[in-house]
Protein 1
Amino acid sequence: MSQVTREHFDQDMVPCYAPMAMVPVRGEGCTLWDQAGHAYLDLAGGIAVNCLGHCHPVLVDAIAQQSQRLWHVSNIMTNEPALALAGKLKAHSFADRVFFCNSGAEANEAAFKLARRAAVNLYGPEKSEIIAFKQGFHGRTFFTVSVGGQACYSDGFGPKPQEIRHLPYNDLAAVSAAMSSRTCAVVVELIQGEGGVIPVDLNFLKGLRELCDRHNALLIVDEVQTGVGRTGHFYAYQATGVIPDILTSAKSLGGGFPIAAMLTTESCAKHFTPGTHGSTYGGNPLACAVANAVVDVVSEPSFLAKVQLSGAALVQALNQLNEQYHLFQTVRGQGLLVGAELNQQWQGRAGEIMAAAAQQGLLMLVAGKNVLRFTPPLIITPAEIEQAIGKLARAITELQEKAIA
C-alpha cells in the first residue's frame, strides 16, 4: 500500500480527526514504524488499548487459530470463546453476569440503559436521573457523550437526553445534596482520563457507595481506561474496597482488537430480558478469542506487580526530568496511567510538547491543553522508559531553544 499517503486522509475521510503526518505501517512491542521506516517509541498505546504492545505473539497466535475456526455467528446463538471469556471475567471481578459489545461507548450505553430499565421496573418511570461528573468522559454515542461532563463534546447536536446531572468530581457534599429518590444511578471514573488523569478520592468513592445504597441507586464504575491491568490491578476498583453494581470494560480488554464488556450483578442483569438490548457483533468468537488470551496474560499476579513497578519508575523518571526542566506542577496517576500537569510557565502547551516529542520519535498523549498523558503498553521495560524520557528531554530542549531564538 505504498501508494497510500497521509494526503489521502484529507481527500477521502470524514474530517472528525486530525491525524499526525506520519502513517504507521508496522508495530512490535512498544515500537512503531512509519512508511519512511522511522521508528517511534509508543507511550500512547493506542490510547490505553495496546496493553501487550503491538503484535504480541500470544495474541497473534490466538487470532490466527480462531480465524481458521469461526468468526461471527450473531447472538441468535452463543459461542465457546464468549462463554470462556465471560467465565474468566466473572472469576476476576465481582460480577455474576457479563454482556459483550464492541467499544467503551457501547458498554457505557448498555450500563446506562440497564440502570434506567432496572429503576423503571422496580420503582417506576420517575426514577430516571443519572448523576455524573464534570470533566468525565464516557463515550461518543449521544447518550454517553451527554452523560460525560464535557460540553465541548456534546454541544451542537440538538436536544440532549434528559435527566442527567453533572457535579464536581471528588465533591461528596455536592452529590449528597443532589441525590434523591429520582436518582437511578451514579457513574464515576476511578481515574478521569480525558479529564486530566485525576484519581478518585477514596473517601469520595466510599461515600458514593453509601449514598447509592441509601437512595436505591446503582453505582456504575467506568473502567474503560483503567481496567484490565492498567493500574496494576486487574480492575482498579479492587484496590478500593468499594464494589460497584455495574462495571464497564473495553480498551485493554482486546489488546487492540475491538471488544468491550459490561459486568454486573445477578439482581441487575435480570432486568435485561430477551429483546431489551443487544449488539450484532458483541461477543463474536474472533474478538473473544483474543480477549481470552489478554486476560490469561494480564491477570497473572506477577504481571500486575510488574505494572505497578513500571508505573512507579515512569513517575520517578518524569519527576527527575522535572528537576532539570521545571515543566510540571504535579505528576499523578496509578500504574501505567500517568498524567503530568504542566506548570504556569508551560500552560496550554501540551499539544506542542506532544508534537515535538513525536519529532524525536516518542508517541504520547494529552489530556486537555495542560496535561501530558502516558498510557504505554503494560509490557514496557525500564530501558524503554529511560529511552522515552531521553526523547522527551530532547523535545523540551528543542522547544526552549526555539523560544530563545
Protein 2
Amino acid sequence: MTAVVEPEVAESSKQGFHVSLRNFEGPFDLLLSLINQHRLDVTEVALHQVTDDFIRYTKELGSELPLDQTTEFLVVAATLLDLKAARLLPSGDVEDAEDLALLEARDLLFARLLQYRAYKQVAELFGELEAAAQRRYPRSVSLEDRFACLLPEVMLGVGPRQFAEIAATAFTPRPVPTVGLEHLHSPVSIAEQALVVLAILQERGPDTWSTFTELVSACELPLEIVARFMALLELFREDKVEFEQPEALAPLSVRWTGEHGSIRVSDEDYA
C-alpha cells in the first residue's frame, strides 16, 4: 500500500525531515499520522531505512540541526520500533501471559504516540499565539478629552466629621479579650461541710433528731446541698451519725451518736 501525500503536505515536506520509502514518501510527521489513523501498517514500514535517511539528513545539516528535532526523532523511532515488535505477535486467542503482556504494551505504545502528537499540536498552537501577541502593542497615550467628560463625578457622601468618627473608631484600642468565670461555681469542701453538720448535730445533742431539710436550710447553692449529703455519708461511715427513714421517699432524719473524736473525711477522695 502506497500512501498519497496531499498538496499542502508536499509543500511542507520541503522543510524538515522527510521519508522516502517503497510504500510511502513524505514528511516524517505525516508518516506518524498515517500510522496513528491506521491508514498505514507499522509492520510495512522499513524503520532501518527511516533511520538511515535521518542520519543522512543530520549529516547534511550538521550543526544547524536543532537538538529538539533530533530528540523527537529518537523518541518516536523508539516508540515505532517497540510498536512494530508488538504488532508482529500473532492475533487471536492469547493463552500465554507473556503474549498478553506484549499486546497490552502495544496498546500502551499507541497511547504514547497519541500523546506525542497531542503535545506537538499544543506546542504549535502556543507558537501561533505567541507570534500573534508579538504584533500587538498597548495604548501609550493619555485619556482623550471627549472620554474624560464621561467619567462620573466622585460622590463620597462623607464629611470631615464622619471621617473623624471613622478614624477615632479605627484607632481606638480594642479591649483585651477575657474569659468570663461567672458561670463557674466555687469549689465546696466536703470535709468542711462535715464539720459544719457535725457541729449542728452535737449542739442539738444525741437525743435530738434533725431532718435533712433542716441541715441544708442555710445552703445557698445546690452544690453545697450535695456536699452536705456526701458529708453525712462520710460521718455515717465513721459512726458519728445515725439515719432514720420510716419508709421510702420519706423525710430523712439524722442525729449524733455521741461519738467523740476527730473525723477522717478528706476531699482527696472526691478529686
Protein 3
Amino acid sequence: MQQDKYALKLYDFAYEAANTCVQCGYCLPACPTYESMGKESQSPRGRINLVKMAAEGKIDIQKDLAEPIDLCLGCRACEVACPVNVPYGEIYEAAKEVITMQQQDKELVKNSSGRVKMQNRVLNQLFPSNKRLRTLGNLTWIYQRIGMYRLVQKSKIINKISEPMGQFEKILPKLESPFERYKFGQVFPPKATKKMTVAFFPGCIMDAVMSRVNRLTIELLQCVGCEVVIPKQQNCCGALHTHQGFIKKATELAKANIEAFESSAAEYFVNNAGGCGAMLREYDKLFKNEPEWKERAKAFVNKTKDITEVLVELGPLPLKKEWNGIITYQDSCHLRNVQGVMNEPRYLLRSIPGATYVEMEESDRCCASGGIYNLLHFEESMKILDKKMEKAKHTNAKTIVTTNPGCLLQMRLGVERSNLQHEVEAVHIVEVLAETCGIN
C-alpha cells in the first residue's frame, strides 16, 4: 500500500510527534479504554503505532485506524503518565482531522448511518448558535415545567429511539426559568471591593441546560470582588468539533471567541467547565500557520482561568452555612490533565464548614463521559462508569462533586445506575460553594 494524499497529510500533521513515543508502556495503566477493552490497539501506544503505520501508507486509515481512534476517550491521562512527554493530544486530534477529512471528501458521510449524519448536523448547525441552544434549553424547561417528562419516561419513547438518550433524559438537572437567565453583553458589578474585571465564558451546554450553575458562578465571582462581563459575540469553544475532527470549524469558533474576549478588556477570562477550559487554553495550537492569530491566541490562553483558580486567588469566599456529610471529588480529565488544575477544587471543598472531604480512590481516572463519547459508545462508557461508581461508594460520600457538565451528567447517571438516587447527589462545585455562601 502506498501513501495517498490522506496518509501524507497524516504524516505532515502527526508523524514527527508520533515518533517521540518509545513504546515503553507507562501509559497502559493510565488508559481507561485499555483497561476496559484489554486490547493493545485501544491503548495510547497502540494508537500511536497505528497512526505511524497509516502515515507510512502501511495500513488503511478508515479500515484500520478510524475505529481505534474513535474509541479513545481523549482524556489525555497518558500525557501525564508519559516519561518522555509525547504529545498524545496533538497526535489524536491530527488523526481525527484526517479521518474526518477523508470521510467528507469521499462522501462516506452521505452513505453513513443516521447517527453520523445527525452528529454532523448537531456539531455544525446547533452548537455554533447560542440562540438555537438557548431555544432548546427553554423548550426543555417547558417540557419539565408542565410535567411532560413523566409521560415520556413512562412510555420509554426516547429509549426506543436511542437508549443512551433515554438514559440521560432521566437524569437531566431541573432547568432554571428562562426569565432568570443572564444576557450576553451584560455587566455585573462586584459585591465587595473591586479587585479586577473578568470576562465569563458560559459555554454552550452549560448555557443551554445548566444556566443556574452559570448564574451562581457569576455571583461567586462578584462575592470575591470581580466585575463580571459576558462578551456578547462569543460562541461555542469548539472542543466537540476538535474531538470529532472538524478542525476548520473549531478554528472559526476560536477566532470569534478571541475577538469577543479581547474587546472585553478583562484581566482574566473565566470558565466553569473543564472540557471547555482545556480547549480555550489550547487555542494557540490551532494557528500553527497563522502567526498573527497565534500571538493573539497565546495572549488569550494566558488570561484563561478556571473558576476554582480565581476563587482561590481572590478569596476567601464568604462561607456562611454548614454542609453536612461526606463530600468526594471526581476530577474532570481536561481540567486535571490539560489545564493542570488539581489542588484548587480540593482546597475549596476542604474549606467548606461542616463538610468532611474524603478523597476518592482513582479520582483522576476518567468517568467516560468524553464529550459525546457516552452517547456514541454507550456500552463501553458504562463499563468504565460502573467501575468508577464502585470507587465512589467506598468513600461513603453523600455528595459527589464535579467541575464539568459532561462529568456531572455522567456521575448523575452513575448514581442512578447504582440505585443511590435517594442517598447520593452529584453536583457542580459551584453549586456547593454557592449554597454555603447563602446564594440560591
Protein 4
Amino acid sequence: MSTATRRLPLTDWTVVVPVVALLALVFSWGRDLPGFAVALVALCLGGAVLAAVHHAEVVAHRVGEPFGSLVLAVAVTVIEVALIVTLMADGGDKTASLARDTVFAAVMITCNGIVGLSLLVGALRNRVAVFNAEGSGAALATVATLAVLSLVLPTFTTSKPGPEFSTAQLTFAAVASLALYGLFIAVQTVRHRDYFLPVATGAGTGKAAGASGGGEADGGGDGDGEHATPPTSRAALVSLGLLLVALIAVVGDAKAVSPTIEAGVAKAGLPNAVVGVIIALLVLAPETLAAVRAARRDRVQTSLNLAYGSAIASIGLTIPAIALATIWLSGPLLLGLGPIHMVLLALTVVVSALTIAPGRATLLQGGVHLVLLAAYLFLAVSP
C-alpha cells in the first residue's frame, strides 16, 4: 500500500521531519547562530523540502490536476512573500531591491530551471516530452505580461528617479497583477481546466489524459502513486497541514541561515542580488523536486503547471503584498531590472514561446533552457 493511501504513523519521517524543522526554526529565530547550528538548521531545511514534496504529491493525488500543482505553488509563494516582507522590514535601505531580485530569480528559475529539467527528464524517458500547448502557452503569456508590467516598466517610467514606481503606478501594477492572477486561476481550474491536464504519451496523440484523478490514467508511470487509490479526505487534509508546516519550516529556516548567507556573499565580494537568488533557490526547491518527479512519471504538463504557476504566483502575489507593505516600510522600493536582466528576460520569453508552441519538446529545448538559467546565475555572480 502506498504512503499516499495509508494512514501516517506519528513516527513516519514525513511527519517527524517537518515538526523537527519547525522546532529548529523556533529555537533559531532571531538568534546569531554558530557554525554547527547553521549546519543543523540547513540539514532540517533539506529534510523539510523533501517532506513538502511528499505531502504536495499526496494532496495532488487527492484533488487532481491542475489543483494539485496549484496548492504547492500558492503555498510556497505566500510564505515566500512573507519572507521577503520580513527581510525588507528588518534590512532597511540595503534590501530596497530584495523583492525585485527574488521575484526575478524565481521567474528565471521556474521558466528556465524547472521547465528545462522537466523537459530534459521527459525527453530522456520518451525521446519527446509531450504537453498541452494551449494551457502552457496561456500561462507563459501571463508570466511575460506580469514580468514586463512589474519588473521592466519601472526602469523606464519618469514620475520618480531611478527604477521605481510612483505610488499611483505601484497601485496600478499591484491591482493589474492581482487581477491577472485571479483570471489565470479561474481559467486554469474552471473554464479551461482540460488545457492544464496531463497528456497521454502512449500513442503520442497529444490528448488530455485522465480528466479525473490528476492523471492516474496516464500510461507509463513509474511510481505507485500513479495508479494507486487516491488517499482519503482525512489523509489529504493531514498532508495539507503537514505541507504548510514543512513550507513554513523551509522559509523560516532559510531566513535563519540568511545572515550567514549574507555574510558569506559580502565576504566573497559578490553582488547583493546573489542573496535574492539564493533565497529563491531555497524556497523553490520543493517545487523543483515535485516537477522533476512528475516528469519522470510522464506528466510533463504537471511539471509545466508547477513552473509557470509558481512564476505567476510569485509576481501576482508579491507585487500587491509589497505595494501594501510600503505603507509601513521605509526607504525606496527598486523594482526595475537592469539591461542585462531585461535581455535575459526577453530571451527567456522568446525561447519559451518557441518551446511551448509545438506542444512537444526534445532534449535540445531542455538544454537550451538550462543554459539560459546557467547564464543568469553566472551573470548574477559576475555581472
